Amino acid sequence: MRLMISGGGTGGHIYPALALIEALKAHDPQAEVLYVGTHRGLESRIVPERGIAFKTIKIQGFKRSLSLQNFKTVWLFLKSVGTARKYIKAFKPDVVVGTGGYVSGAVVFAASQMHIPTVIHEQNSVVGVTNKFLSHFVDKIGISFESARDQFPAKKVVMTGNPRAQQVVNIKKTAALKALGLEDDQPTVLIFGGSRGAARINQATVEAIPELNRRDYQTLFVTGQVHYDKIMDGLGKTALAPNVKIKPYIKNMPAILPEIDTILGRAGATSIAEITALGIPSILVPSPYVTNDHQTKNAQSLVDEGAADLIKEADLTGQSLVKAVDGLMLDATGRQKMAANAKRLGMPDAADRLLNVLKAAMQAH
Ligand SMILES: CC(=O)N[C@H]1[C@@H](OP(=O)(O)OP(=O)(O)OC[C@H]2O[C@@H](n3ccc(=O)[nH]c3=O)[C@H](O)[C@@H]2O)O[C@H](CO)[C@@H](O)[C@@H]1O
Known about the structure:
Layout: E1 2-6, H1 11-27, E2 32-37, H2 43-49, E3 53-56, H3 68-91, E4 95-98, H4 102-113, E5 118-122, H5 129-134, E6 140-143, E7 157-159, H6 163-169, H7 176-179, E8 188-192, H8 199-213, E9 218-222, H9 228-234, E10 244-247, H10 253-256, E11 262-265, H11 269-278, E12 282-284, H12 294-303, E13 309-310, H13 318-329, H14 332-344, H15 350-364
Parallel strand pairs: 1-2, 1-4, 2-3, 4-5, 5-6, 6-7, 8-9, 8-11, 9-10, 11-12, 12-13
The protein binds uridine-diphosphate-N-acetylglucosamine.
């Protein structure tokens, strides 16, 4: 199979694409893949590092208010569709897949106009603006939450789950915590604010460090690349005990996750797919800054099943963070119950399901 795939901006759109590529290569080692992203998004760092062929397109998002910038955006969109057409002509894909972000809008739209089989994958319970636009042109749509179904043309939709779920369940324990300077036989909480870090979670965690230092459990605090230097500078005289480690970014999250006992983090859809696939107890702090408050809806789908706790960002302080983390880390039975509830919601074969959707789109042509 020759797969052209595009997803950009944040990890939540990129990691599902990488997981799908991994599953495709496992089934078909001869498969050829071209990833199309932007030079500014996280994908420009993550994708080439994996040895995947990568090309870029320049694009920008719409401003919500009417502005001159929007004319530039439309012009850039049309230009980027032109660039995508060139890439498609040269690569000759059998199928083109979009996993979200503006760049996937241009690539998948161009492919549909060239009568190439197209598929989009939606990770969220509330559909993203790019996927909503593309849904009118594509052949098939993979979704991860039932509540997304009604927001798309019904006959194109298939429940696949998020391919990242399958990728993380296939990783065995590798003493990855040890490599980060932690013990691999101690209960560990991972604190992180999605793929880019979250200022409020970071601030509360910094406040909590004197308490976390004193706990018997370990803390792995991942700040997000752009926040790291400021946080380390701001720590000033606060010493870190050996059971607390701070990192800017975890490159190989699937290797770390099997060794994690509790997560405190955002409720991004791909994080949720990982949490449910592995059955990891979690405290979710939905971002209030995303479209239609979709992270609260993502989080609520777990909370309703006893599969996660929720703290509103407005209620998050150093104190409430420690209280919530203690609540799970000091209660092994409660953790086990939550883990089982989370795992029941997991979709560990999501990448294979999405691959089948790709094949169905190709057959339909
Ligand atoms: C602010 C924002 O717009 N967030 C959106 C973005 O979230 P975001 O990009 O944060 O995505 P998710 O929380 O869904 O996933 C984060 C991904 O990054 C990985 N990771 C994270 C930190 C790290 O150090 N290393 C690492 O590999 C995680 O393992 C996970 O695979 O896309 C999601 C999926 O469309 C949406 O649901 C979120 O609302």
